[in-house]
Amino acid sequence: MGARGKLIAGNWKMNGLRAALAEAEKIGAGAASMPEGIDLAICPPATLAGALSDLLKPTSVALGGQDCHPAASGAHTGDVSAEMWADLGARYVIVGHSERRADHGETDEIVAKKAEAAFRAGLTPIICLGESLEERDSGQAVNVVERQLRGSVPDTGANKPFVIAYEPVWAIGTGRTPTVEQVEEVHDRIRGAIVERFGEGQNQTRLLYGGSVKPANAGELMHASNVDGALVGGASLKADDFLAIATASA
Ligand code: PGA
Question: Model pTM greater than 0.90?
Answer without folding.
Answer: yes
